[in-house]
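Example complex used in Figure S2.
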Amino acid sequence: MKRTLNVLVLAALVIFVPSLSSAQKPIVIGAPLSTAFLYGWDAERGIKLAVEEINAQGGVDVGGKKTQFKVEVIDTRDLEPGVPVSDALMAVEKLILEKKADFLIGGPVRSEAALAAMDLLGKYKKVSILTTGSLTPAYHARVEKEYDKLKYCFRIHGEAGQLVKEIMACFGEIKEKFGLTKAFIMVQDVAHARGGGEILGKVAAKAGWTIDGTEVYPTGTTDFSMGLLKAKNAGSQILNIWMDMPESSILLKQWYELQIPALPFGSTLAAAEQPGFWKATEGKGEYTLCNVVNAGNAPSNATDWTMKFYDAYAKKWKIEPEGLGSSSSYMAVYTLKDAIERAGSIDSGKVVEALEKTDLMGVYGRIRFNPKNHQVIPSLDPKEGAVGTILQWQAGKRVVVFPKSIAMGEIQLPPWMKK
Amino acid sequence: MQILIYGTINSIALALMALGFALVYGISRVPNFAHGAIYVVAGFLTWAFLKAAGFSYLLSALIAILITGVLGALIYRLMLIRVRGMAISEIIASYAIGLAILEGLRWGGFKGMTYTLPLFIPGSVNLGGVPVDIHRLLLIGIGAAVIVLLWLFTHYTRIGLALRGMAQDERAALMLGIDSDMMALLATAFGSMLAGLAAVVLLPLGNIVVEAGYNVLILAIAVCIVGGLGSWMGAVLAAFLIGFAQILTVVYLGSHFQMVVALLAIIITLIIRPSGLFGRQKELEERV
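Predicted assembly (707 residues):
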């Protein structure tokens, strides 16, 4: 009896063990994201949507073997006030060492944390595609300067320098159409916002704009009335806002209540990017302009894929794509899939080479990376590169107003600014 | 004019945030570090009754304030009473409770900017060339009324007098038959209700976010340290000092330094006069 049992166990092992060993281990995508904040949860949703779609189609072809993606998300909390950068670094290291992430997509979200994480990525030779939040030009500048060490770092969304160019082009349209020439800059006290505001101030001044002042707000500020009054007293006509904190919606409510005669223009304005902004401000945020960095984060027909992504996101998450990290995070997964398939391997070195040769028509235009600094190549034309998007809140809807190649409407002024 | 109007409004807002904290410490000598968390809870409760249950704002706010009072009493009866008299344990326990509440809310999905409360009266008026939203003007009236009512309560009601007796000398109050634990419980409940009241009048100006709990706690502590721990009239005066200092800082230096004012006030007070403007805690040591 015992002998028969042993034979049966042995037979079972012979039958099942080969099938177990041949089961393909999934490719783990680690997503270090500040999940309690817009730029965290929008990216998480974008990544998960793309992974679900790819897995439903059979997965990734790695050298002839179909492999599934698996997502591991860790909350870096780096967007929260007072949370040290080291917490985000621990999250990145945990993803690499404990969760055995093969690749990283998403954050860290805060520029300071993303810059600090670059050394870790270099140390562990992990390919990372930054998709949300971090706009600092220092990121791709570091890749270019320390290429051999940091070649694993890519960024697939627009950065502050490009944003400023797009904003200035849009400012030009506003100047031409409405004759506005005076701006007041309001920034959150974080690296990307301070840097962006400073660059914009200098560029705008060179372009003939009068910059009436710059006001810096600590993260978590809930009262902007004094800054708004400064802008009003100076006769500013545009409020250029760089803020990723949810409290920025308060700024727009106060702008409306005080009827400040200046058009709010968010270079980074997390609150106004979200569909819930209208409800949060009870419609008081109407006329707010807002840069959502890449197409696909607001409805437009930039490419054939834009509205397909937009609708799929809305269907899955019961909400429209919300922040600047939605379309780029989604696209990063498809870009990684494309690179792995061309590399025929998940080896970091081979995938880096493949990513550098990426040429993919995506949700927000043609996706290519600058091979020297791994920054996605931008353009105002989606056929040529990653196209940006500036929207304006009009009658409860987010209407894309810039660039002209994908615009769905015209910029409008609030009634109290009309002469 | 701008400094006068916005300085007064900011000072009243700070006083509203700090009065509850000052009251609890003044009576029970327990520093309620869950104060900021209770403020946020009151905001979310009001939002829930208003949006989910469809109650009027006034009713929603009243229910929320009552619930925060019960919450404060429970916090004292179930947790703080066990560590009363052990200063470090009181701080750790109450901060832990606050942390659990705030992080619990975040974990429960209460994040983002969509949790908002409506203004009492929308729109703005022009006062001497300075635009001010009407809600802020109402704040001045509400804040002044709260301060007067609190003074009347502590001077002309049996409970109020008992609370003051406790605050002045707990042992003497015990000898006169005042139940010190009951008074401390009531003080925590009233303090929590004041935090709730601050939330329902201040949060319509912004939105309800978990992070506000930490900010309110820091500001309340700053006001109470400058005013003198335990003295709620000192807290009112300190609120005006810090409130005006903040507005002057914003006007002449920039918004970036607004929070520094409160933190700097704590440091300067602790160096020059640790007991604060009206505090008696270290008066003897200071004299020596």
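The first strand of chain B starts at residue 124 and ends at 127. Residues 8-210 of chain B form one domain.
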